[in-house]
Amino acid sequence: MIQSLFNIDLPLIQAPMAGVQNVELAASVCEAGGLGSLPCAMLSPAQLVEQLDLLTQKTDKPFNLNFFCHTVTDYTSQQKQQWHNMLTPYFAEYEIDPQSLTAGASRQPINQAVVDIIAPYKPAVVSFHFGLPKHAIVAQIKSWGTKVISTATTLDEAIWLSENGADAVIAQGLEAGGHRGHFLSMDLSLQQTTEQLVKRCVEHLSLPIIAAGGIATPDDVKHMKALGASGVQVGSAYLLSKEAKTSALHQQAILEQAQDSTALTTLFSGRAARGIQNRVMLELGTMPEGVPSFPHASSAITALRTCAEKAGQSDFSPLWCGQKYIPRVGVSAADITHILMKKW
Ligand SMILES: Cc1cc2nc3c(=O)[nH]c(=O)nc-3n(C[C@H](O)[C@H](O)[C@H](O)COP(=O)(O)O)c2cc1C
């Protein structure tokens, strides 16, 4: 039971969604009895403290803090040049001098300084994307009584997480919006649907399995329960909720073309993530050779995104969205939580 594990009423985790939400969404889901999540991977230390103070003012219910734990590799000048060459026509179109680019909003893996910041807040849950951080960090977080969970996209990853300290595993199927949480293998041909992955994980593991990807209706939730999932993690279904901070261009893309027009792409960060196809994905291909490794692809593309968005275009914006989407425009996240859990 993840209800007793996380001390929540409803076995629903609002998926952390960096870039489209802050504490408003998390607090609304917490107050409704689910587990609200704050995505922390793109927050500076000062922003993290500010958001944690706000969150704990808004709710005294348990919450989840989400971090990335990727290994940052070097970004060589040769890789940068290759990437900029691919984007040259776009830089020309927006009159951007690639030499002037500084690193844009990026994603940092968790480190000891961040652990020290969150320690006094004693989150009920800390979730990770891309594996787990080093053992000492996992052990320290667990010493507060905090539960540690992480995403698996294959049975092998789920087994690895269970053997390396996870208290529960988020089984993320192919349908999921945003970044794939894969970390043992980058081979996308290994990826399975949520249904297939949940079934396999439930069959082989004894710790709680939380289903994620393509869950948008009460029947989807009921189906995951029938497969043996202990709960669900839901992202895209909250993208148009009252409390989400999804940009107007992103909202427009979701309303006009989300169904069946998503694809996995590495273009925006260097790692595969699912979003609505836009101009840059259609013109360069979703996974062309030469995109630098995560998260280095983002700085150049963010410069293009900023210019295009000023002109009212989402041609270079990461329009993260899962394969299944039911628009619930302006509905509160609390109401969406209750709707989804109606048949649990
Ligand atoms: C806009 C968006 C941003 C996301 N950002 C994160 C993130 O920061 N951290 C994370 O662990 N997962 C992130 N995800 C993935 C979710 O945790 C989850 O796997 C996914 O939303 C589930 O599929 P669904 O979107 O079909 O509900 C994101 C998903 C979306 C749609």
UniProtKB/TrEMBL annotation:
SUPFAM superfamilies: Inosine monophosphate dehydrogenase (IMPDH). GO terms for molecular function: nitronate monooxygenase activity; nucleotide binding. Gene3D superfamilies: Aldolase class I. Keywords: Detoxification, Flavoprotein, FMN, Monooxygenase, Nucleotide-binding, Oxidoreductase. One of its GO terms (biological process) is response to toxic substance. Coiled coil: none annotated. This is Nitronate monooxygenase. It comes from Pseudoalteromonas haloplanktis (Alteromonas haloplanktis).
